[in-house]
Amino acid sequence: MSTPVHGARRTRGHDVLVIGGGLIGLVTAWRAAQRGLSAAVADPDPGGGATHVAAGMLAAVTELQYGEQALLDLNLASAARYPDFVAELTELTGLDTGFRPCGTLAVALDADDRAQLRDLHAFQLTLGLSAHWLSGRECRRLEPLLAPGVRGGLRVDGDHQVDPRRLAAALLRAAELAGVAFHRSPVVRVIRSGDGGGTVTGALLADGGVIGADRTVLAAGSESGRFPGLPDEVLPPVRPVKGQILRLRVPAGHGPFLSRTVRAVVRGSHVYLVPRENGELVLGATSEEFGWDTTVTAGGVYELLRDAHELVPGITELPLTEMIAGLRPGSPDNAPLLGPTALDGLLLATGHHRNGVLLTPVTGDALADLLTSGELPDYAAPFTAARFVRQEQSV
Fold it and tell me: pLDDT confidence of 195, banded at 50, 70, 90?
């Protein structure tokens, strides 16, 4: 049982407290407020964290992996929501989210990559997905700056992009307009009361404040797996997965560089280039299991530029404007943890791994439904934390 918080400055209670102000936390609070709930967000830098580092690919089809069919359904449901979702945000806030319905081209640079991409295409077709095989010549016709050695590729017209930083700014503004309260202080721990496991009743902040809430949503990204104040059996199985990305600039007057997101596997490493309409080009991303380290390394930068140069040789002529690293919240099956926990008053919206930007609309809808009706919608039901408890019991 949690010890009482003596001498703390208590704020008025809320229906919902969201711990974490990334895209997932912001959309959860905003949608809750739209449903008439009193909502608050606790985060010292809302809109920062992994959101600030993400490239913003909405790649339900091109990021499909074997064994992730259930996650695919959730990804597709969220991708279908995106046009209306960003239109609503722009209408409410007047802010552009950088959404581009430009499609994606995944290419192969050697025979092995081509065979692997062919297998992925066959798998996509068995699931009824829309993806079109192109020859190397057809790929270069679409994107003339591709390397001459490209052996073939997949054109996926439904995999688009958004600018996560602009999206976060729009969500932050929308939440403010909806009356969400923001507490820009780190959470020291959640507060529990009652016997046994107790009930989560809010959080203690580093500035001494206490936020009371009927329900608390843990949306703290990679930090969710070690969050203070929770018993070990309730902590979600979320770990940090490091990603390094680069931002480059296409000079004015240079002419079009790429018309769509381009991605490939080069010597077993995934690389992608995401062109923004404002001339920015995002290059990523490494995937490293190095704990909590967020250092930008010479090796990571070198590997990204080397692989991208093999894909699009002209990239080395562009100015490099930013090198940054962040931590994705990975889960054991690469899918999010949504909904109730074994602890009363505590809900989860975390563990989105590489799909956090893509799953923002559907996560907000699912959590809003849960907070207002007490039940997760059917499409989100497979993604509760209970699936890992069942797996442990069956071992």
Answer: low
